[in-house]
Amino acid sequence: MPDVESIFTIICNLVTKTENTDEVMEIVNVITAKLVQQPNEKPAVRLKILINLYNLLETPYCQFYVYLKALNLAVDGKVTEYIIPSFKKIDSFLKEWKIGVPEQRELFLAISNVLKENKSLSKDSFKFLTNYLATFSGEDALVLSEAKEEAVRAIVDFVKAPDVFQVICVIMMFKLLHGIIVSVSQTPTFNHSY
């Protein structure tokens, strides 16, 4: 009787049999939903299957989607050590995936949260958190309000940091945070003169 990993490998190969990107996404949704359903049951094997699926995919957005599912599975299954090394390739992944700002935000915040759990990687966590916050530059007050909690976390993380970061980083962060705070605190008023 074949093992679960072999069965999923065969199922994952279905994505290579269709050229329709909508069908590929449907297959990816079904496979990933099954794999992330019980993250504590053989999480390393489930993660390996997701990585195999990722490598079979040719559609950039599908790759991003599977990577994000793998990231969440690694967190929920407590096997982040298997996915952390891939964070070094995020810049090249972003170029390949060509994802929008909302997806970048989701990715940067998820990576920052993974790295936050490992004290020796707090500097990397801070870097991804500032990347997340930087995606809010130029946004309106409503969108900026989404970043309020993480902006506070960035300040706290920065203050707690044992080593001093570059002055430019500090200036950029405070400019961004100032913009967020000012935009969120301003409430629109209507002045009617009849």
UniProtKB/TrEMBL annotation:
Query: Which SUPFAM superfamilies does the record cross-reference, listed alphabetically?
Result: ARM repeat (SSF48371)
Q: Domain of life, per the record?
A: Eukaryota
Q: What is one GO biological process annotated to this record?
A: cytoplasmic translational initiation
Keyword check for Cell inner membrane:
no
Listed A to Z, the keywords are: Initiation factor, Protein biosynthesis
Task: Provide a GO CC annotation, any one.
Answer: eukaryotic translation initiation factor 3 complex
The cross-references to InterPro entries, in alphabetical order and at most eight, read: ARM-type_fold (IPR016024), COPS7/eIF3m (IPR045237)
- Molecular-function GO terms, alphabetical: translation initiation factor activity
Q: What is this protein called?
A: Eukaryotic translation initiation factor 3 subunit M-like
Q: Which organism is it from?
A: Trifolium medium
What high-level taxonomic lineage is stated for the organism? Eukaryota, Viridiplantae, Streptophyta, Embryophyta, Tracheophyta
